[in-house]
Amino acid sequence: MAEMTPSDTGADTPPIALSAAPGYQVRRLYQAYVAAWVRLVDPVLTGPQFAVLTAVGAAPGEDQSSMATAVALDTSTMADVARRLEGRGLLVRRTAPDDGRRKLLFLTEAGEEALAEADRRARLLDERLLEPYGPGERARLLGELTALADHWEGLTRDA
């Protein structure tokens, strides 16, 4: 029997056990998305930071814990993201007058400007990502992705 070289084994393609695994495909999507985000939206502002700015822009003055839930971050990650955004002058955290432990979040003027520009670029990225799909297919795909995310998040609560 002849010895197989790496090129004979298909080393540049994943084994079927991987390519058939949903988690593997989700990881591939995420890696490609992050690379596209850095190149086309913002090399400094991360996806979670963008999500926090978006949520705070939509509901200024909400508390940090509620915002964490809204953007699917745990409270310690949310605290770190908020601290970083505050350090960059994009967000202000104020202590709630009725409860010194609660932090209320507000965008600064610079935060509003950064959000507007990042949102414009993110919408253009969304268009490129969904380019192969027509409007009806996009709605169906987003519905499927949302349902899958909801189901997978439920699995983490059940475990």
TrEMBL record:
Sequence ranges assigned to domain HTH marR-type in this UniProt record: 1-150
Native source species: Streptomyces varsoviensis
InterPro entries associated with the record: HTH_MarR-typ (IPR000835), MarR/SlyA-like (IPR039422), WH-like_DNA-bd_sf (IPR036388), WH_DNA-bd_sf (IPR036390)
Gene3D superfamilies, per the entry: Winged helix-like DNA-binding domain superfamily/Winged helix DNA-binding domain (1.10.10.10)
Xref: Pfam families: MarR
PANTHER family reported for this sequence: TRANSCRIPTIONAL REGULATOR (PTHR33164:SF95), TRANSCRIPTIONAL REGULATOR, MARR FAMILY (PTHR33164)
Top-level division of the source organism's lineage: Bacteria
Protein name per its UniProtKB record: MarR family transcriptional regulator
